Amino acid sequence: MDEKVLKSLYDIKLAIEEIESFLLIEEKTFVNYTNNVLIKRGIERNLEIIGEAVNRILKENPEFLITNARRIIGLRNQIIHAYDSLSYENIWSIVINYIPNLKIEIENKINNSTL
């Protein structure tokens, strides 16, 4: 595996771990998420990082498989360019339903990497 791809995988892993750490501050509920601007912005920033890292991986190796890669990049673009139309329900759903699976996938890719 290319060093640039591996570095981006680690960036994704660290961003996911940071999102998880934000959710330890208070009980993990949608209401707590929407009422805490620091947690909202921290999660959004890390979703941007994840999207950018996936984008860099695909630029380096277009054949590299990451589940929902185009959707992840699309979310990054929406957060950056259409921030005023973000749905907190959508972001919360992604954090709860998709980030745990992405973490497992990325950790498996890191663990199976060879330079």
Q: Could you characterize the architecture of this molecule?
A:
With 115 residues, the chain is mostly helical. The protein is built from six helices and no strands. Helix 1 packs antiparallel against helix 3. It is globular and about 40 Å long. It starts with a helix and ends with a helix.
Which key phrases capture this entry?
115 residues, mainly alpha
Note the topology.
Layout: H1 3-22, H2 30-35, H3 37-60, H4 69-81, H5 88-97, H6 99-111
Helix pairs in contact: 1-3, 1-6, 3-4
Summarize the structure in short:
This protein is mainly α. The chain has helices spanning 3-22, 30-35, 37-60, 69-81, 88-97, 99-111. Helix 1 runs antiparallel to helix 6.
Count of beta strands = 0
What order do the helices and strands follow? Answer: HHHHHH
Strand content: under 5%
What is the average of the pLDDT values? 95
The structural class is: mainly alpha
Distance, first to last CA: 5 Å
Query: What proportion of the residues is helical, as a percent range?
Result: over 70%
The shape, in one word, is globular
Tell me the number of helical segments per DSSP (H or I, 4 or more residues long): 6
Q: What is the radius of gyration?
A: 14 Å
Q: Which segments are poorly predicted (pLDDT under 50) over 5 or more consecutive residues?
A: none
